[in-house]
Amino acid sequence: MRTIWLSGPEWLAVLRIGLGLWWLESWRHKDKKAWLERNTGITWAAGVAAKHRWAFVRGGFGAVVGSRPKLMAYVVLYAELAIGLGLVLGFLTPIALIGGALLNLLYFVLMIHDWAEQGQNSMMVLISLVALLGMSWQTWALDEAWGLFL
Questions:
Q1: What is the pLDDT of residues 114-138, one digit of tens each?
Q2: What angle do CA 53, 109, 16 make, to 5 degrees?
Q3: What is the pLDDT of residues 16-35, one digit of tens each?
Q4: Distance CA 140, CA 17 (A)
Q5: Contact 28, 88 (CB under 8 A)
Q6: What is the mean pLDDT of residues 81-92?
């Protein structure tokens, strides 16, 4: 494969690291105190889910997230942080890529009416897929250094 400046595997690493930075920014910009003490993020999402056109989203959100909002606030915040760090450092990269793609798909389904959000989630899932299938953990990654996922 011919590329300009970097090799193909290096470009895949750049894509992986950029996606990780995107996740870290998603984590960084959240008001952690409001999320964890007042459950603002989960409360907002519950309002979106309650008006969702698909019954399985309304019911699923209520059963899984709505019944334990404090726990789910922690799960969302620390999942975004863990995914971002995993991708930037290249640590447990396939797990971070799959976890990130699943989280994006959950956001996508919840926010199906908000097309502004769909572009971000679609791009993040696409990048996750390319980085996963391109085995982006083979370059500039702790996984590579430690011989994981060869």
A1: 766 788 999 999 999 999 999 999 9
A2: 170
A3: 999 999 999 999 999 999 99
A4: 9
A5: no
A6: 98
DSSP 52: -
HEC string of the chain? CCCCCCCHHHHHHHHHHHHHHHHHHHHHCCCHHHHHHCCHHHHHHHHHHHCCCCHHHHHHHHHHHHCCHHHHHHHHHHHHHHHHHHHHHCCCHHHHHHHHHHHHHHHHHHCCCCHHHHHHHHHHHHHHHHHHHCCHHHCCCHHHHCCCCC
Structure tokens at 12: 């895949």
**pTM of the entire predicted model:** 0.93
